[in-house]
Write a structure and sequence with these properties.
14 helices, single chain, elongated, 2 domains, 6-stranded mixed barrel, alpha+beta, 3-stranded antiparallel beta sheet, membrane, 416 residues
């Protein structure tokens, strides 16, 4: 009996192909949008996360604490980082190779950089060779800083893409030729040994000029020492082995710094940690919100499609009133009639959903191929779309089916 009802439902769709297609349009759009959006949203999130990792998210940045934070200690230089903190973390890094890869200082000062008559503002960063191991530094020409540069306090520097472009022009040949030229930084001459390629984003080096820490402190900028604590650090970057040990690495850093800085028990940390999970969590939240909103719109489209199915099924009941009367006169029960019309509504919903899913799969694969990214199909979204379509078909088809089932045979046969 069920097979016969399914066959009759499909025959009804084939008998009114164009009307069935128009009825399914809302379901097709809703199911297709749901699958496409969730699949592309997952692909985009994975791609962005990979790019963040490539840019150097396998690191923890130690920054000065907020002196205005509730519970901050009222002591001179509260929260500022110094070379003493760097040495303590350097010892920790060497002692825990299972957690940490390397460590690099950042001493940042806004200054003027000049080449001939052209001058630009730049962020001068004193660091060492380990910086290139903590952050991605895509060199366009030349090299990055070396241990020898730091030891000798050499007057050398590496310029970011934007600085090199503003000083020497955007032509690639001009950027390549910048290596070996002398520029003035804070009024002092340094020789360019490397040019970094463009790398926008949250960890960009485009507007920076890098110099050895000793060069910056002794030859370029003075007055950077904290009383009794040595050279002031803007940031301390610590490379971690992988993202899975972030919590353990963070706990080790906090314990080491609290001990080195003699932070009393119960007092808040007078430093801050910025981890890659924070940036990734923000991105994930934004992506999830956008994906969820579009998925909600797709769900509304499915509901609208369900209303269309209810409407057309009510029309079908009216058109087939005499047929219903004949069937009931020949012995069909109310349940048989109810089942037939529910199955027809379910068939409309599921077929429309399948058409939308197939179209969405084709679109996702095409976009992934064109964009050059891996765009796997979200089979969870496919399952949700089919399940939702099933509920839509049954839910919106039940009222018209029940109306058909409750028709009296005599009245139905008299209907013109």
């Amino acid at each position: 009996m069920l097979n016969e009802q399914i066959s009759m439902a499909l025959d009804s769709l084939r008998a009114n192909k164009f009307r069935s297609l128009l009825t399914m349009l809302g379901i097709i759009i809703g199911a297709g949008t749901l699958v496409a959006v969730l699949s592309l949203g997952n692909a985009l999130q994975s791609s962005v996360f990979e790019q963040f990792i490539d840019l150097g998210t396998r690191r923890i940045a130690v920054a000065p604490g907020d002196p205005n934070a509730k519970g901050a200690r009222n002591v001179p230089g509260y929260g500022l980082l110094s070379i003493q903190d760097y040495r303590a973390l350097e010892a920790l890094s060497n002692a825990r190779p299972d957690l940490f890869r390397t460590i690099a200082p950042e001493v940042a000062v806004n200054t003027e950089v000049r080449a001939g008559t052209t001058a630009v503002r730049a962020l001068l960063v004193g660091t060492n060779a380990a910086y290139a191991e903590v952050q991605t530094v895509p060199l366009l020409a030349g090299r990055f800083l070396t241990e020898g540069d730091e030891t000798s306090g050499a007057r050398v520097g590496v310029v970011g893409y934007q600085i090199a472009r503003d000083l020497f022009g955007a032509d690639e040949a001009a950027l390549q030729a910048a290596v070996g030229r002398t520029i003035e930084v804070s009024g002092q001459p340094i020789t360019i040994v490397g040019v970094i390629g463009e790398n926008g984003g949250p960890f960009t080096t485009d507007g920076r000029v890098f110099a050895p820490v000793n060069t910056l402190r002794l030859r370029l900028v003075g007055g950077l020492d904290l009383p009794g604590r040595g050279l002031q650090m803007s940031t301390i970057l610590i490379g971690i082995t992988n993202e899975q040990i972030i919590d353990e690495a963070e706990a080790a850093i906090i314990s080491t710094l609290r001990s080195a800085r003699a932070v009393p028990e119960g007092a808040i940390n007078d430093f801050e940690l910025n981890t890659p999970t924070q940036a990734l969590s923000v991105l994930s939240g934004i992506n999830g919100a956008i994906t969820g909103f579009i998925a909600l719109v797709a769900g509304i489209s499915l509901v609208v499609g369900g209303i269309g199915i209810m409407n057309i099924m009510l029309v079908a009941v009216t058109e087939r009133t005499r047929e219903i009367g004949v069937r009931k006169a020949l012995g069909a029960s109310d349940g048989d009639v109810l089942g037939q019309f529910v199955l027809e509504a379910l068939a409309l919903s599921l077929v429309g959903s399948l058409i939308g899913i197939v179209g969405a799969i084709a679109i996702v694969l095409a976009i992934g191929f064109a964009a050059g990214i891996a765009a796997p199909i979200s089979w969870t979204a496919v399952g949700i779309a089919l399940l939702f379509a099933t509920f839509i078909g049954i839910g919106f088809g039940f009222y018209p089916a029940r109306r058909a089932a409750l028709l009296q045979p005599i009245e139905a046969l008299r209907y013109e």
